[in-house]
């Protein structure tokens, strides 16, 4: 089944878009202002453009996410 038609993949994409749009500003502020010397208005403009690109359904962004789950021994 194509990813475009897979309802599960669509739900995952929708949830991920919400996460990206909620966290994009907070993840961008420090590196762009402190490391690259951009002012806050430049960062906000960049984040707005990036958020718009992330909302584009034609964009199929992929990034690995590693999850580690453990249990304390003897706990």
Shape: flat
Order of helices and strands: HH
Nearest-integer average pLDDT: 86
Number of helices: 2
Portion in beta strands: under 5%
Helical amount among residues, as a percent range? 55-70%
Quick one: biggest sheet?
A: none
> Could you give the distance between the termini?
43 Å
The SS-based structural class is mainly alpha
β-strand number:
0
Rounded to an integer in angstroms, the radius of gyration calculated over CA atoms is: 17 Å
What does this structure look like?
The structure is a single chain. The chain is mainly α and 75 residues long. It is 59% helix and 0% strand. It is built from 2 helices and no strands. It is flat and about 50 Å long. The relative contact order is 0.10.
Give the SSE map.
Layout: H1 7-35, H2 40-54
Helix pairs in contact: 1-2
Core attributes:
mainly alpha; flat; 75 residues
Brief account:
This protein is mainly α and 75 residues long.
